[in-house]
Amino acid sequence: MSDKTLVNEAKAILEGIKTHQKNSTEKLSQFEKQLGDLKRAQRLIQEANAQPVATEEHLNAPDYALKGFVGEKGIRWKTENRDVQIAGRGTVRIEEKGLLDTDAPVNQWHADLIKINKERSLARMIMTSPHTPKSDLKLWKHMQKAPRFMQPLIQKAFNDSASQGAEWIPDQFAANLYFNIEEQSQLPRVVADNLQKQAVERNTILIPRLNRGGRPYLKGSVSTDNPAQYTASSVVTSQKSISIKGLASRFIIDDAAAEDSAIAVIPSLQRQIVADLNDAMEDALINGDDSATHQDAIADWNIRGRWGTGSPALGGSSDHRRLFKGMRKQAFDRSSTADLSALDFAKLLGLKAQMGELAMQDVVIFASPEAVLANILSLTEVKTIDVFGPQATVKTGQIAAIMGMPIIMSRFLSADLNTAGKYDNVTKTKTGLLMAHAPSWTIFERRGILVETDRKIDVGATEIVASMRASFDTLDLDATKNVAFGFNMAIS
Fold first, then answer.
1. I want to staple 102 with a disulfide (CB 3.0 to 4.6 A). Which of 9, 97, 289, 477 is the partner?
2. Is residue 283 part of a domain?
3. Cα–Cα distance between 281 and 293 in angstroms, integer?
């Protein structure tokens, strides 16, 4: 290799080193610039989110801090996202709290506003009605005390809304209260919790049962070398067929609804769909009837407004109250019913007596809230939980006891029955109660509640499905009076 060639190679190596150094320096400079841009962006975001510091001077001047909730479009009622342009970093999205859903009220007027609006939203959810005139008036009166600069903005919001201003305050932020109400304030699903359960492994179960036992006879004396055999008894047997059926519920949530909601919609709906299945099971245990024609006019029967008015309509072939024969239907089929109008202890005792020897123990009373409050608690023989609770085993949902029978309230014993104890959509002024020999009744479970979630990217939605497989029946003979229904009870 010549000296010239060596020199050229050395020059090439040096040029490469220089180029690498130049590139490294440029990359370092770019990195430092990006780091500086990031720090500036963070500072700008912090400044944008920062709340003004309310000094003593400003405590008596609500308009100072409240101006932070006013934008180009007027008052910002709930939390919104806003895009901010930052030099060197492009567009950055920041979150701006709303007047009604902020965690930190800026003054007393603001705190009172949030409290009043939450009360209004809560009343609407409990009443399942968009009309709360008293709450609306209270809210409106409070808004009249708002800072002067907010008055025209409030008036505009009021005038632009439907129903004469009843819906002008957005309720979306308070939706997280709804599921708490569903889970906590409703009566427990008590019927299933007080009956025995049996796991099964097939869709149809054939269970042998003894219709009639043997008959003992006197033993003869042994007087010969060939004594007579003991007299044989005849035993009658049969089998009970139990068919397992499925029960399911489904939600579809649009991506936009899930993304724009102030709460975690999908987890909340997952909890709610489980509650829906539990409620449907409770309803069927009491009011179910799988006969060709349901004993009640279920197409028009929405107990306490629980099932809404969606599609498919109530009463169809897929109505959950066609799952199996519930205890009220079973009581009518077994002719173990009684008129309990003008209820007294003797009438209640008479209903229990219809159950014969089964009435001696393990009998539970399931009653509507109206039956308990307007009828049962007035009986002097009733003992409430505060009297016997510490000394006794208390059943799930039990609020009192009479003649040793736990009294348990269920919302699915309705208060809109006719005088014969059925729903006919004509006479809707009576309620009732059930007496059941609990060990005689079994919930057969093929599978408990399964909740599945499926992301449907082709339509931009999430599907939630909850399902279960179960049945309910007694192994007793059809003539056995192991349940009784008392009807024609006053609701007030």
1. 97
2. yes
3. 20
Cα–Cα distances in angstroms (integers) from residue 84 to residues 34, 40, 81, 94, 259, in the given order: 18, 13, 10, 7, 20
3 state DSSP class of 69? helix
Residue 363 and residue 435 in contact, taking contact as beta carbons nearer than 8 Å: yes
pLDDT tens digits, 351-377: 999 999 999 999 999 999 999 999 999
pLDDT digits (tens, 9 = 90+) for 171-196: 433 433 333 333 433 445 689 989 99
The answer to the question of residue 191 being in a domain is no
Q: Are the C-beta atoms of 127 and 105 separated by less than 8 Å?
A: no
- Whether 5 maps to a domain, the answer reads no
Q: Tell which wins on pLDDT, 322 or 132.
A: 322
Type of residue found at 110? H
Give the Cβ contact number of residue 351 at 10 Å: 24
CA distance 348 to 340: 7
Mean pLDDT value of segment 264-272: 78
Domain that holds residue 380: 242-490
Highest mean pLDDT among 83-87, 160-164, 201-205, 402-406: 402-406
Contacts for 211 with CB less than 8 Å, ≥ 6 apart: 236, 237, 238, 477
The dihedral built from the CA positions of residue 145, 151, 155 and 156, taken in this order, carries a sign that is negative
Q: Give the pLDDT of residue 45.
A: 47
State the pTM of this model. Answer: 0.61
Query: Token digits for 222?
Result: 């042994």
- Assigned token pair, 489: 């009870």
Residue 486 and residue 11: Cα distance in Å, rounded? 108
User: How buried is 337 (Cβ within 10 angstroms: 0-12 exposed, 13-18 middle, 19+ buried)?
Assistant: buried
Q: Which single residue is written with the structure tokens 């209004």?
A: 120
**Look-up: residue for tokens 């006919």?**
424
State the average pLDDT for the chain.
Answer: 78
- Quote the pLDDT of residue 100: 82
> How many structural domains compose the chain?
1
Q: Which two tokens stand for residue 133?
A: 């005139």
Q: Considering only 34-43, 212-221, 289-298, 302-311, which range has the smallest mean pLDDT?
A: 34-43
In a domain, 75, yes or no: no
Residue with tokens 């990217």: 457
Query: Rounded CA gap, 109 and 423, in Å?
Result: 50
Which CA distances in Å does 471 have to 270, 293, 378, 382?
23, 19, 36, 33
Res. 151: pLDDT tops 60: yes
Pairing of strands 405-409, 398-402: antiparallel
Reduced to 3 states (helix: H, G, I; strand: E, B; else coil), residue 276 is helix
